[in-house]
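Reading a protein record of the kind used here takes only a little practice. Think of the row as the fold of the chain written in a discrete alphabet. With that in mind, consider the following protein and its fold in token form:
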Amino acid sequence: MDLAASGELVEQRLRRFFADAKLRAECAGPAYLELWEALERAAAGGARLLRSIEVPEPIHRKLHEVLD
């Protein structure tokens, strides 16, 4: 799996994670929802940063193992 595909996989997992978390936060109240939305924006920035960094192959393989 190449780096671009790994980045897309990470983004898919993050979107699913935050969708679930925001559903639970909506039940808890608006402050929790606001918190999760802020965390989601921060994670999206981190994903963009990861896509811009060239990851050495051993780390890339380990990341792939963890995410699968």
